[in-house]
Design goal:
The complex is a heterodimer of chains A (203) and B (136). Chain A has 203 residues and is α+β, with helices and mostly antiparallel strands. Chain A is 37% helix and 23% strand. The chains are: A alpha+beta (203), B mainly beta (136).
Chain lengths: 203, 136
């Protein structure tokens, strides 16, 4: 083999190796979520006019500037709602303890009749200091929920008590107030701890 | 409040001299309503050591206006609560009330403390009281 041929062979090997490396790089998919459904395109959050747990008027801009986990429920739901919020709080603690960014927990009442700002304030504070509670006008809540694909319906009243059927998903909202992913029930803190950094790393 | 971890309450269904108690309640976990709310939840496991099914027809509590047996279900992504008229612990079997599933709904507290009374239907109607010691 001449020196020239050797050179050509060398160039070819480097070229093949480089091509292989590029194709491997490109073929490596981003890390996959194990529980969350990530939307291919960020979704627009509907506009709304509601109250936070301190009675302050808020609108969609309350979602600007931080990642949020959005859950619809009601404070007199004794089983599923506190279980879900407790799992979200646990996930937040674990992410924070691991030095990761943890989204804020946002609870939207589907029962504003009983869930006044005062009631919501005590309730969300039970699950952590940084949580946001949203309540207010029922029609506004309906509009907001509908725009997010969230269903709720008040059940039959019996002995002064009623329950409210509601979607059990947890929605992930990015710092630009865009809908990015959803988690379906049953909710486990571990799934959020695993998936949230993956979703949030996509920026 | 988790009162059940240290306590297995052995409930005698009748003046019974059998070695094993006919019904055992364990893992009793009564959670009073969260701050600002009116509804709490109760969880427990009931084990039936007899040859016959034991049916609970009603639950009451001196500390709550009402107690209902409920089941949480998630169907097509919608969370619902279904009231249960009765719950039957099968012969030599057990029934669990646990988070996210079958539970006792403790409605509107009227006093402090925690205790529920399970009312059974098994020939005669029988009333058994779970005395859950202590409160966090």
């Amino acid at each position: 083999m001449t020196a020239r041929n050797l050179f050509i062979a060398g160039v070819a090997i480097v070229a093949i190796a480089t091509g292989l490396w590029f194709s491997l790089e490109l073929a490596t998919p981003p890390p996959a979520t194990r529980s969350a459904t990530v939307f291919p395109e960020p979704g627009e959050l509907p506009q709304f006019s509601l109250l936070d747990q301190h009675g302050n008027a808020i609108d969609r801009s309350v979602f600007d500037g931080q990642w949020d986990l959005l859950y619809f429920g009601y404070t007199n739901c004794p089983d599923i709602c506190p279980l879900t919020l407790a799992e979200l709080a646990k996930a937040r603690q674990q992410l924070t303890a691991a030095g990761a960014d943890a989204p804020r927990i946002v609870f939207v009442s589907v029962d504003p009749e009983r869930d006044t700002p005062d009631v919501v304030a005590k309730y969300v504070a039970y699950f952590g200091d940084a949580n946001l509670g949203i309540t207010g006008d029922l029609d506004q809540i309906r509009k907001f929920a509908k725009g997010l694909g969230i269903f709720f319906a008040k059940g039959r009243e019996e002995g002064g008590m009623y329950s409210v059927d509601h979607s059990s998903v947890v929605l992930v909202v990015d710092p630009h107030a865009k809908l990015r992913a959803l988690f379906s029930a049953p909710h486990k803190a571990d799934d959020f701890v695993h998936d949230l950094p993956i979703i949030m790393a996509r920026g | 409040m988790r009162a059940g971890f240290a306590t297995l309450l052995f409930l005698a269904l009748a003046a019974c001299s059998a070695q094993r108690p006919p019904l055992v309640a364990s893992d009793i976990d009564l959670r009073p309503p969260l701050p600002g709310t009116q509804m709490g939840a109760g969880y427990l496991t009931l084990t039936n050591n007899t040859e016959d099914p034991i049916t609970i027809t009603k639950v009451t509590s001196p500390q709550y206006d009402a107690v209902q047996m409920h089941e949480s279900v998630v169907e097509n992504g919608i969370a619902r609560m279904r009231p249960l008229d009765s719950v039957t612990v099968p012969a030599h079997g057990s029934v669990t009330f646990e988070p996210g599933a079958r539970h006792l709904m403790l409605m509107r507290p009227t006093g402090s403390g925690a205790g529920v009374t399970l009312h059974f239907l098994s020939g005669d109607s029988l009333v058994l009281t779970l005395n859950v010691p202590g409160k966090d």
